[in-house]
Design goal:
The complex is a heterodimer of chains A (112) and B (116).
Chain A lengths: L3 E3 L2 E5 L4 E6 L6 E7 L6 E7 L5 E3 L2 E6 L4 E6 L8 E8 L9 E2 L3 E6 L1
Parallel strand pairs in A: 2-11
Antiparallel strand pairs in A: 1-3, 3-8, 4-5, 4-9, 6-7, 7-8, 9-10, 9-11
Chain B lengths: L3 E3 L3 E4 L5 E7 L5 E8 L3 E10 L2 E4 L7 E6 L2 E6 L8 E8 L11 E2 L3 E5 L1
Parallel strand pairs in B: 2-11
Antiparallel strand pairs in B: 1-3, 3-8, 4-5, 4-9, 5-6, 7-8, 9-10, 9-11
Classes of the chains: A mainly beta (112), B mainly beta (116).
Chain lengths: 112, 116
């Protein structure tokens, strides 16, 4: 089953914060976050592993709540370059195949 | 840098034609994947391969087949294209070596296929 992402879309002004959630009906081994800009390939942001710590990259960070089977992506002081569609990809166990199931995406638009 | 390339950015075919989409990666990755991306549905896995000549069905394999004769190349084949296969097709590769690896998938630029 696909993980559920919320919200489906969000519009921000530059400098505002946003949270994107990714919820699964199954226990998760890992959550991968990607951003895809219009007309481009998805680009990897970060991966969170079961039992791992919260990750961060610049002003984008993420957490993984294993009990809730949920991951959240935090965008702080958003920049115009943050605009795009954000996808979470989930694994329920490590197989070596890295067979991810992706959510339907969250469209983020940051305006000046 | 990892590079994943796809043979065409845009492709227009007619219903019933046989269509080949090619993907090549240059990082010696074991795993390769084909996804289709449709508005509101996200990325859905069609097939993946974890070694030469090995393939596994993904979530939506119907109407598709794949071929992996060389490690760096993974082909998606539409035996008889239909209009409902009009979509964006993305190839990806990865090589997670052990449990706990923080490696991930690297995507190609995509092929936008239109079937008329």
């Amino acid at each position: 089953q696909q993980p559920v992402q919320s919200p489906q879309a969000v519009i921000l002004r530059e400098g505002e914060d946003a949270v994107i959630n990714c919820s699964s009906s199954k226990a998760l081994y890992s959550v991968h976050w990607y951003r895809q800009k219009h007309g481009e390939a998805p680009v990897f942001l970060m991966i969170l592993l079961k039992g791992g710590e919260q990750k961060g990259h610049d002003k984008i960070s993420a957490s993984f709540n294993e009990k809730k089977q949920q991951s959240s992506l935090y965008l702080t002081a958003s920049q115009l370059s943050y605009s795009g569609t954000y996808f979470c990809g989930t694994e329920v166990s490590w197989t070596g195949f890295q067979k991810l199931v992706f959510g339907t995406g969250t469209r983020l638009l940051v305006s000046p | 840098d990892v590079k994943v390339t796809q043979s065409s950015r845009y492709l227009v075919k007619r219903t019933g034609e046989k269509v080949f989409l090619e993907c090549v990666q240059d990082m010696d990755h074991e795993n390769m994947f084909w996804y289709r991306q449709d508005p509101g549905l996200g990325l859905r896995l069609i097939y993946f391969s974890y070694d030469v000549k090995m393939k596994e069905k993904g979530d939506i394999p119907e109407g598709y087949s794949v071929s992996r004769e060389k490690k760096e190349r993974f082909s998606l084949i539409l035996e008889s294209a239909s209009t409902n296969q009009t979509s964006m097709y993305l190839c990806a590769s990865s090589s997670p070596k052990t449990s706990g690896s923080t490696d991930t998938q690297y995507f190609g630029p995509g092929t936008r296929l239109t079937v008329l």
